[in-house]
Every structure is written in structure tokens, then in C-alpha cells.
């Protein structure tokens, strides 16, 4: 049987977070013709603005920007190209794989979906209207506006505690409002509890963000007693999880209840040559080291398939 003609790209990676950048950099080292598509101007995804990313043991703590820029340089130095446009559709069939953006169609022999996840919003009254006027999801970008002020961080996982650790030295007080027990790593818990200006409000959720021109407080509800109370604060930082960015993908791609792409290994079932890695994938464990490992494993599978 005649082999299908090779596409313009060996590999298109969609998403320029750490997973996508890592995949693109590794594929470039294999000599593949790689095209990376990222919707934002900034690369790095969820950690783009994180001051102290940890979990890559050989590196120690580093900023998300340094990590992203060093990976981007590895991609471009090896001849990979980066396009800053949102991917709008993916088509796959006997003719190959095609990723559509506003600027055109990007044909490829293989694709890695690394569109990650977006931080979940509280979804309560006042949040949307006060976003940018006291509600923020980036302590490194906006923490300085709250110097000497009282702020609330919502959530009890790694991200909430990491952001609280950025705010604690700047703000007068940081109140962590959490529905459940802390789920964060012990190292973060030990560091945050060492700050005298940090306190915890347990078993509680935020019902409303209060304020007109800027945030003046939150109304919280205790899930055990059913009682509500107001907490005065100038800033609210919600870190209550994230939802996978899969809305642009074909409906028939298998998804779990949370919207994450279900893979067999890392391959998308029923879609030859297409892989999903990192935070967009069902079962991803939330650690950058895993995103990097999945990136390398997906590229190795693509290289083996090309050789076979
Ligand atoms: C505040 C915070 C701190 C964290 N700190 C750590 C840490 O210290 N250590 C650690 O191990 N983990 C940390 N994490 C978790 C870590 O950020 C994630 O596990 C990791 O970023 C997932 O990487 P990803 O590339 O899969 O997805 P993402 O980081 O979500 O990147 C996805 C990228 O795809 C892009 N994209 C989305 N849709 C499209 C589209 N249609 N077209 C083109 N591009 C698209 C997005 O713009 C984004 O750049 C932290 C998370 C947060 C929120």
C-alpha cells in the first residue's frame, strides 16, 4: 500500500504551557519539524506568573517565566516555530491531521494536545464585576496593590498556599478560606503556618464578593453551622481548582466527567497520531514533573511510530 505523503509539519503541539513547551523542545532534539501554537502572548501557561515554581528536583525553585523562556529558547534555537493564535478546531482523518487557527490551517503527521486548564472562578455575585478591582488570580502580578492590606485567599491546595506565601510578606493579613482540610504539600503548610499574619477559616465557602468600585470584603458561609459572616478585605484570590481547556476539540474525543481528555497511555483513543498530555488530560496528577515526563513519553511514541 502506498504511504501517505508527509504533511508540512512532523508535529504540531497545541498549548505553550510547560507540557507543550517541553514536548516541542524534546521533539526538536529528535530533529522533527515542530510547530507550537499558543493562544497567549506569554508562554508558560498556569505557571507563567508564578515566582517560585518547584517540583523539578534538578532545578530547585525557579520562576515560571525563567522556565518558560528557557524552554522557548530551546525550541526556537532548534528550528521549531511558535505561533501565537488560539487553536479553534482539530480535524483528523485519512488525509492526516489539521489544526485550524484564525490565520490558517496547520497540517501535520502528529499532534500533541497540551491546552492545559484554566483556573476555576468562584462563580458568586460580585466576583466578575470586581475582577481587576480587588479580585485576582495572580499574587505575583497584583500582590503589590495590596501592600499593608487585608486579603483573602480561597482554597486549600498547593496553588492557594503558594499564592498565600507570596502575599503574606506584603499584606497586613492573609485569611485562607477553605472548604476542606488542607490538601497542599507539607512543605507549603509548614511555611505558611510560620507566618503570624496568616489565619485559616475552615469548612467555609465564599458566597459573595462585596464592594462597589473595589473589593471591601467577602461573605462566607460555614458549611457545618450554616452561618454566614462578612470578612473585611481589600483583595480576594481564588484558587479552587481548574477545568481542562477542551472546548475547541471535536465532540467525539473521549472526556471524563470533568472534561479532561481520556487517553490510552497518552494516545487519544480513536485518533491515530494524536496525544494529550499535562493538565488537559484525565488523570494528570497536577505536577510539572509529570507534565514534563508525559511530554517526553508522547514524543518518544511519535518518533517510534515514524520509524516503524
Ligand atoms: C498558582 C499555581 C502555582 C503552581 N505551582 C506549581 C509548582 O510549583 N510545581 C508544580 O509542579 N506545579 C505547580 N502548579 C501546577 C502546574 O501549573 C500545572 O500542573 C502545569 O502548569 C500544567 O501544565 P500544562 O502545560 O499541562 O497546562 P497549562 O499550564 O494550563 O498550559 C496550557 C497552555 O495552553 C494554552 N491554550 C489553551 N487553550 C488553547 C488553544 N485553544 N489554543 C492554543 N493554546 C491554548 C494556554 O494559554 C496555556 O498557555 C501550579 C499551578 C498554579 C495555578
User: Helix proportion of residues, in percent?
Assistant: 10-25%
Tell me, briefly, the overall form.
elongated
**Ions and ligands:** flavin-adenine dinucleotide
Q: Helix-strand pattern, N to C? A: EHEHEEEEEHEHEHEEEEEEEEEH
**Spans where pLDDT lies below 50 across 5 or more residues:** none
Q: Total strand count, please?
A: 18
What is the CATH homology-level superfamily of the largest domain? FAD/NAD(P)-binding domain
| Tally of separate domains | 2
CATH fold category name of the largest domain: FAD/NAD(P)-binding domain
Tally the helices: 6
Mean pLDDT: 95
Write a structural description:
- The strands form 5 sheets. Strands 1, 2, 3, 4, 5, 6 and 18 form a 7-stranded mixed sheet that branches. A 4-stranded parallel sheet has the order 10-9-8-14, with helices on one face.
- The model has no long low-confidence stretch (mean pLDDT 95).
- It has helices at 18-29, 64-77, 139-142, 158-167, 186-193, 288-307, and strands spanning 9-14, 34-38, 81-84, 87-93, 96-101, 104-113, 117-119, 150-154, 173-177, 198-201, 204-211, 215-222, 228-232, 235-238, 242-244, 263-264, 267-268, 274-276.
- It has 2 domains: 9-118 and 242-307, FAD/NAD(P)-binding domain, CATH 3.50.50; 121-238, 3-Layer(bba) Sandwich (FAD/NAD(P)-binding domain).
- It has 308 residues and is α/β, with parallel strands linked by helices.
- The protein is built from 6 helices and 18 strands.
- The two termini are 15 Å apart.
- Flavin-adenine dinucleotide is lined by residues 14-20, 37-40, 45-47, 50, 53-55, 86-87, 114-117, 119, 159, 162-163, 245, 248, 278-279, 286-288, 291.
Amino acid at each position: 500500500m502506498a504511504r501517505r505523503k508527509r504533511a508540512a509539519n512532523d508535529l504540531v503541539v497545541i498549548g505553550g504551557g510547560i507540557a507543550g513547551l517541553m514536548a516541542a523542545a524534546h521533539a526538536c532534539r529528535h530533529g522533527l519539524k515542530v510547530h507550537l501554537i499558543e493562544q497567549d502572548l506569554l508562554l508558560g501557561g498556569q505557571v507563567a506568573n508564578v515566582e517560585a515554581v518547584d517540583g523539578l528536583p534538578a532545578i530547585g525553585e525557579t520562576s515560571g517565566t525563567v522556565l518558560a523562556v528557557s524552554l522557548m529558547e530551546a525550541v526556537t534555537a532548534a528550528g521549531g516555530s511558535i505561533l501565537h493564535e488560539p487553536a479553534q478546531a482539530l480535524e483528523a482523518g485519512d488525509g492526516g491531521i489539521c489544526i485550524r487557527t484564525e490565520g490558517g490551517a496547520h497540517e501535520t503527521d502528529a499532534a500533541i494536545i497540551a491546552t492545559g486548564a484554566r483556573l476555576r472562578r468562584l462563580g458568586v455575585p460580585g466576583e466578575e464585576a470586581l475582577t481587576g478591582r480587588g479580585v485576582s488570580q495572580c499574587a505575583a502580578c497584583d500582590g503589590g496593590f495590596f501592600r499593608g492590606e487585608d486579603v483573602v485567599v480561597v482554597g486549600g491546595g498547593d496553588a492557594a498556599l503558594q499564592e498565600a506565601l507570596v502575599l503574606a510578606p506584603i499584606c497586613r493579613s492573609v485569611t485562607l478560606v477553605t472548604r476542606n482540610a488542607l490538601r497542599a504539600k507539607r512543605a507549603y503548610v509548614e511555611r505558611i503556618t510560620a507566618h503570624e499574619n496568616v489565619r485559616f477559616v475552615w469548612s467555609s465557602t465564599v458566597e459573595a464578593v462585596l464592594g462597589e468600585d473595589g473589593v471591601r470584603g467577602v461573605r462566607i458561609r460555614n458549611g457545618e453551622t450554616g452561618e454566614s459572616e462578612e470578612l473585611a478585605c481589600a483583595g480576594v484570590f481564588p484558587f479552587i481548582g481548574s477545568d481542562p481547556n477542551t472546548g475547541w476539540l471535536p465532540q467525539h474525543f473521549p472526556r471524563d466527567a470533568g472534561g479532561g481528555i481520556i487517553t490510552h497511555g497518552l494516545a487519544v483513543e480513536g485518533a491515530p497520531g494524536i496525544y494529550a498530555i499535562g493538565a488537559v488530560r484525565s488523570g494528570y496528577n497536577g505536577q510539572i514533573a509529570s507534565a514534563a515526563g508525559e511530554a517526553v513519553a508522547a514524543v518518544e511514541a511519535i518518533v517510534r511510530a515514524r520509524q516503524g
